[in-house]
Amino acid sequence: MTIFKSVSVVFLSAAILVGCQRNAPESVNAAEVQAKPAKPAAATAKPRLPTDPQQPASPSPATVAPATPTGQPAANAQGSATLEFHNRIKEYLKIHNEAETKVPNLKNTNDPAQISEREAALAKTIQTLRAGAKLGDIFAPEYQPYFIKIVQDDFATRSAAARKAIIVELPKNMKVDINTVYPTTLPLATFPPMLLRKLPDLPPELEYRLVGRSLILRDVKANLIVDILRDVVPTIPS
User: Fold this and answer.
1) Whether pLDDT at 237 is above 80
2) DSSP string, 69-131
3) Which of 26, 149, 164, 217 could bridge across to 227 with cysteines, CB 3.0–4.6 Å?
4) Is 179 exposed, middle or buried (0-12, 13-18, 19+ CB in 10 A)?
5) Alpha-carbon distances, residue 6 vs 18, 57, 166 (angstroms)
6) What is the pLDDT of residues 46-79, one digit of tens each?
7) Rounded mean pLDDT, 9-17
8) Helices (H) and strands (E) in the chain — how many of each?
9) C-beta separation of 225 from 216 below 8 A
10) Residue 198, SS3?
11) Residue 203: how many other CB atoms lie within 10 Å
12) CA separation for the pair 233, 48 (Å, rounded)
């Protein structure tokens, strides 16, 4: 019985010794893994190129404005031309308003003679203030091509009979000129409404007129031709 117990103790000790030998490497390996430092994130990331402080970031193509040969962004040519035309209208209105202050007001607005007299006085005062007026002073050269296109496109949609009904023909040997009184012998026919809507708006002191093949700017109160754009209306086919 004693011998059997001794053998059992020896066998059990041997088994424990073998198990410890098997587990020892695994324990060492685990300790080594835990002790091993982790790789820094920067080591696995792609290196970032240094930024040149003098070199601005390139904008995306969608944000780059179209440029002119001078490198400036392209402007709205028609918008700029329209603005120039309106600025010239404002400059003329300064002259018109100054002339109004130099002419006595009407005492009786129902008297045609007094109305005509004041009209003539206002026209003469404006003519004096604009003694050096020339063609294109108000019909800005920048906008003239657009005026011509608007009128010609409108007339292209009209029949020959409709065109003739619009045009106020000048009598022979008569010529209208800038800074002159609008001829009282010419009728003040209604300007074509559809065409009027396509042209730039005017203040109450001014209106458009078609005389012959010319587009005229007329001062309503002074019955004065303040500017002319010639050869605007296309030739009427016979």
Assistant:
1) no
2) TTSSBPP-HHHHHHHHHHHHHHHHHHHHHHHHHHSPPPS-TT-HHHHHHHHHHHHHHHHHHTT
3) 217
4) buried
5) 19, 86, 137
6) 444 444 444 444 443 333 334 444 444 445 888 8
7) 45
8) 7, 4
9) yes
10) helix
11) 13
12) 67
What does the buried/exposed string (b/e) look like for 73-101 if buried means 16 or more CB atoms within 10 Å of the residue's CB?
A: eeeeeeeebbeebbebbeebeebbeebbe
**Residue 127, C-beta contacts closer than 8 angstroms, at least 6 positions apart:** 179, 224
The torsion region of residue 136 among left (phi > 0), alpha (psi -120 to 50) and beta comes to: left
Length of the chain equals: 238
User: Does residue 233 contact residue 213 with C-beta atoms inside 8 Å?
Assistant: yes
Q: Are 191 and 210 in contact (CB under 8 A)?
A: yes
Tokens 């010529």 belong to residue: 175
Q: How far apart are CA 69 and CA 58, in angstroms?
A: 20
- Fill in the DSSP letter of residue 141: T
Pairing of strands 214-219, 224-229: antiparallel
Q: What is the value of pTM for the model shown?
A: 0.66
* Token pair in block for residue 144: 């003239």
Which stretches of the chain are assigned E, i.e. beta strand? 180-181, 206-211, 214-219, 224-229
> How far apart are the C-alpha atoms of 111 and 116, rounded to whole Å?
9
The single-letter DSSP state of residue 168 is B
According to DSSP, residue 61 is labeled G
Cβ density class 151-171: b for 16+ within 10 Å, e for less: beebbeebeeeebeebbeebe
Terminal CA-CA length for the chain: 147
